[in-house]
Request: fold
Amino acid sequence: MENFKKIDFENWNRKEHYKYYTEKLKVGYSMTVSLDVTNIVNFCKKNNIKFFNAFIYCVGKVINSTDNLRMFKDKDGMPCVWNKCVPNYTIFHKDDETFSDLWSDFDFDFEVFSQNMNNDIKTYGNIKGIKAKENQPPNFFCISCVPWINFTAYTAYTAEGTPAFFPIITYGKYVEENGRLKMPFNMSISHAVCDGYHAAKFFNNVQKEIDDFENLIK
Reply:
């Protein structure tokens, strides 16, 4: 059984948009917002839950509920949608100031997903090099944290100049503003698969997930 679905390209409502942004103007874009993480941070601290795991779960839940954010090209160059995407996240090594990335299988059950992350970090977290865990599947999205700075903008570029179809997500240090905890949150993605409307919907849904995290995992 295939782990993706093919798009009916000829009847797809984004056919012209897709062709324009993959053939004529191969553009991607980055958008940064400030998330209110007060509720989820306080809940995680109160219940001894790792914010790192909880936040990646919330982002993964939204991505795995949004077709535009799980798209890729098949061998014939046609757009398809993965049934599920797993997070590729970064681990920082304080001793030599380098990082490695890991991936963990995603599950809509937070306890299952969080345990997957804990197991992978325990097993591979001290391995140096870019890829600490081998056999990363092609159905992934990137998410990394820059916890040392509260940035206002961030842009990710690919070397060959072709924007990635998968979301490249970066979040930063949360700080207190008027009694609330605010955190910068950025997504870079190809315009061929995701317009401003879809990006706004993504950001709003992530905010909703982190606001309701306490109720979602009960």
